[in-house]
């Protein structure tokens, strides 16, 4: 699955600068329309360390109304959380109708990091897939828009980025020993990721693989995917889409430089 992703896709800086503001403005308009229509949204950011998830998340949320979205940076469960059913803490973070929640990492930690690093028994991560499917199906049936991203880069590109971050005194603090440990187990993670994508790519909660070698491409692809999914949700509810912004006309970007997404794995 991941081996078929074209990681060489790029967008020129001038095209990126033209497209990004228009896409951010469009996303803001759709956020307001979904708020008014009571459509809730969940956006998940998963992917390799140093794949550009943070930059894409900042680009995605920069123009949004902060009153109607929340970012959750998912860490290992605290002591009291580990005494509850494992999905309990995520149920507490589900947004109300009309709002948006962005998860920087998510419940998929259970079948990735805990499976590879934590030695989670096979029967437990198999059970976790069943729990995740039920969890997402319940939310999708209730009208939640679930958008799941996986940011993909090669092991070589990951090593290059980690070294670059580590060599800069201003960013070296971002590279932790566990990043290099996960890098060394790239093949093991690849097996777990392929399994995750295969088992949890469903119509109500599909995955979109983001080719992240070129960070500008990854940011635009993220914006375009969310815009498309929100437009589809509004139309499915019989809502009128907000009109195009006068500064975001189609003709402002040439067909040559426009990104067309082909990384959905549905």
Task: Draw up the topology in text.
Layout: H1 13-37, E1 41-47, H2 53-61, E2 69-73, H3 88-91, E3 100-104, H4 113-116, H5 122-141, E4 145-152, H6 155-167, H7 177-184, H8 186-200, E5 207-211, H9 215-236
Parallel strand pairs: 1-3, 1-4, 2-3, 4-5
What does this structure look like?
- It is a single chain.
- The chain has 266 residues and is of the alpha/beta class.
- The chain has a single domain, classed as P-loop containing nucleotide triphosphate hydrolases (Rossmann fold, 3-Layer(aba) Sandwich), CATH 3.40.50.
- Helices cover 45% and strands 11% of the residues.
- The chain has helices spanning 13-37, 53-61, 88-91, 113-116, 122-141, 155-167, 177-184, 186-200, 215-236; strands at residues 41-47, 69-73, 100-104, 145-152, 207-211.
- Strands 2-3-1-4-5 form a five-stranded parallel sheet, sandwiched between helices.
- The protein is globular and about 50 Å long.
- The N and C termini lie close together (11 Å).
């Amino acid at each position: 699955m991941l081996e078929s992703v074209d990681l060489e896709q790029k967008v020129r800086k001038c095209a990126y600068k033209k497209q990004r503001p228009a896409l951010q403005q469009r996303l803001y308009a759709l956020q307001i329309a979904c708020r008014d229509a009571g459509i809730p949204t969940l956006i998940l950011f998963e992917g390799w360390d140093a794949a550009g998830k943070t930059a894409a998340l900042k680009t995605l949320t920069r123009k949004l109304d902060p009153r109607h979205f929340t970012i959750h940076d998912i860490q290992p469960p605290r002591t009291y959380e580990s005494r509850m059913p494992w999905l309990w803490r995520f149920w507490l973070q589900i947004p109300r109708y009309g709002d948006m929640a962005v998860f920087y990492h998510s419940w998929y930690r259970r079948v990735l990091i805990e499976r590879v690093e934590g030695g989670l028994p096979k029967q437990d991560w198999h059970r976790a897939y069943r729990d995740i499917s039920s969890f997402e199906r319940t939310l999708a049936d209730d009208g939640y828009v679930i958008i799941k991203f996986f940011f993909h880069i090669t092991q070589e590109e990951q090593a290059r980025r980690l070294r670059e971050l580590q060599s800069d005194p201003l960013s070296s603090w971002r590279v932790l020993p566990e990043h290099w440990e996960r890098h060394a187990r790239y093949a093991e993670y690849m097996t777990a990721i392929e399994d995750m994508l295969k088992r949890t790519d469903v119509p109500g909660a599909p995955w979109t693989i983001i080719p992240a070698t070129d960070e500008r491409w990854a940011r635009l692809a993220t914006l375009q995917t969310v815009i498309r999914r929100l437009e589809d949700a509004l139309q499915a509810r019989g809502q009128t889409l907000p009109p195009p912004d006068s500064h975001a006309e189609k003709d402002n970007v040439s067909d040559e430089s426009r990104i067309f997404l082909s990384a959905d794995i549905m």
